[in-house]
Amino acid sequence: MQLQEILYGAAITKLVGTTNLDVNALVFDSRKVAQGDVFFAIKGTLSDGHDYIASTISAGASVIICEQMPGTLETEITYIQVENSAVALGIMAANFYHNPSSKLQLIGITGTNGKTTIATLLFKLFRELGYKVGLISTVQNHINDDIIPATHTTPNPLALNGLLNDMVNAGCSYCFMEVSSHAVVQHRIEGLIFAGGVFSNITHDHLDFHGTFDHYIKAKKSFFDRLPKSAFALTNADDKNGMVMLQNTRASKKSYALKQLADFKARIIENSFSGLNLDVDGTDVFFKLVGSFNAYNLLAAYGTALLLEQDRLAVLTALSTLTGAEGRFEYVTSNQNIIGIVDYAHTPDAVQNVLSTIQNIRKGTEQVITIIGCGGDRDKTKRPIMAQVACDWSDKVILTSDNPRTENPQAIIEDMEKGVSPTNKRKTISILDRKEAIKTACHLAKPGDIILLAGKGHEKYQEINGVRHHFDDKEVLTEQLNLLS
Ligand SMILES: CC(=O)N[C@H]1[C@@H](OP(=O)(O)OP(=O)(O)OC[C@H]2O[C@@H](n3ccc(=O)[nH]c3=O)[C@H](O)[C@@H]2O)O[C@H](CO)[C@@H](O)[C@@H]1O[C@H](C)C(=O)N[C@@H](C)C(=O)N[C@H](CCC(=O)O)C(=O)O
Ligand SMILES: Nc1ncnc2c1ncn2[C@@H]1O[C@H](COP(=O)(O)OP(=O)(O)OP(=O)(O)O)[C@@H](O)[C@H]1O
Ligand SMILES: N[C@H](CCC[C@H](N)C(=O)O)C(=O)O
Ligand SMILES: [Mg+2]
User: Fold this and answer.
1) Which H or E run contains 283?
2) Taking the CA of residue 233 as centre, how many other CA atoms within 13 Å lie in the half-sphere pointing to its CB?
3) Which controlled-vocabulary keywords does the entry list (predicted)?
4) Same structural domain for residues 412 and 480?
5) Are residues 73 and 139 in the same domain?
6) Is 403 a pocket residue for ligand 1 (Cβ < 6 Å)?
7) pTM for the whole thing?
8) Residue whose CB lies within 8 A of the most ligand 1 atoms, among 45, 216, 456, for a mutation test
9) Average pLDDT, rounded, for the chain
10) ipTM
């Protein structure tokens, strides 16, 4: 492809060399550069791509996109200076793939919790309604029935536009994608054209990356600020910051709520282990998803479908048949009638929501045993709070490892223990090994008891020092529960 063609829309501040040349691929990692590639020098959280410019030229790069020109310039190379290389990558990746987001209806879902659930519900719903659809999510990506493994909640711009292009080629008319706050700040969604944006909620997470809660709100809000006038922006009016998200958007403002006045309204009639009975805009419907937080997710999916001009009753009928995403409130029952729940709750709010749901639907005499850990190289301030919430809402708590990544797992548990009050200490034990922790919970449980295994949901690995070891919460919990009988 010609360099000129992919530069359209990129804000160039200085150009040295020709733009009249054929380029091979766009690359932002020096270790992957090949002959004829365009290398984007991006300033990251760990290193600065500008430090690798010389090595990419040795590896065959013919074009360098950078924020600062190198001290010495090679004669055969084209150097393009831009204000922000990550923004340029987003725009040029979209051009490279002929702007696939403009050829289908792309809906972005953002918020602390619920993105995967809402995106997955919408994907399944639109498949049920007979459409060709794409999904970009934490668990996995989909192009109709084909599964493409996911590495991030929101992929990098090249992977993202590549996926969207494959969706267009497969005839998809809709794509539902999660938009993480990391993706917004790192400009992974630059150059995409959204037909709609959906906000779920915002609570404590990722303060290691965003610094303050205010910056975290601004990151989410900037997704709505950049939506075009032709799009819709659907927010959760019950969330304290729901309306803030829409303050400066040009998109058409819509809302959903259980408590406030809103364009799409629902009321919980009944919430049990078998599902949710809701009144949705005057229609009584039974859904398979469990927990009041899922009433919000269902309502967000319903509102989005109606804004995409789908038939209301067809939408409600199809939604009522759907299950949620893998690893979200998934439960197994042992022969001894012990209930094991696997859930991806990895924020204080999610842990509280899941445990309060269990509280609301339990009979009262059984114990709730929670197994919980926190991820390494992630927000340290949420650790004591997650432990505290787990203790406040459970009869017994086992603190254990999640994904320690590059941190010492024992130190992560000690951070969590700081949130355990003296009165809660007696119901808490710490077991470093996650499998041992699960085994212990199963031994402690009596018939009728409920075990919540929180934090890793669908994940099929435990990441320790850069190595992903096979670990599947549902598999281990089921195995341990079966060993009891
Ligand atoms: C903190 C974070 O988001 N990091 C992401 C970021 O990496 P980074 O900024 O640390 O990159 P860096 O290592 O500093 O390098 C800067 C630049 O130099 C380049 N480089 C670096 C080394 C080298 O030898 N040569 C070279 O060219 C890199 O390719 C990069 O372009 O950009 C990389 C490329 O896109 C991502 O893979 C990486 O995701 C890491 C692995 C990650 O774990 N991210 C998580 C936190 C994340 O993004 N999570 C959200 C979901 C969160 C949620 O919803 O809960 C997600 O969307 O997945
Ligand atoms: N609407 C909601 N409000 C609060 N908590 C929720 C909501 N939906 C789901 N949760 C809780 O959050 C967990 C994660 O849900 P989900 O995977 O849908 O969120 P996510 O936003 O995609 O998360 P991530 O940021 O990791 O991608 C669930 O397992 C559940 O415990
Ligand atoms: N998208 C989230 C997932 C957290 C899942 C939890 N198991 C952990 O490893 O912290 C993150 O990257 O922060
Ligand atoms: Mg997700």
Assistant:
1) strand 283-287
2) 24
3) ATP-binding, Cell cycle, Cell division, Cell shape, Cell wall biogenesis/degradation, Cytoplasm, Ligase, Magnesium, Nucleotide-binding, Peptidoglycan synthesis
4) yes
5) no
6) no
7) 0.97
8) 45
9) 97
10) 0.97
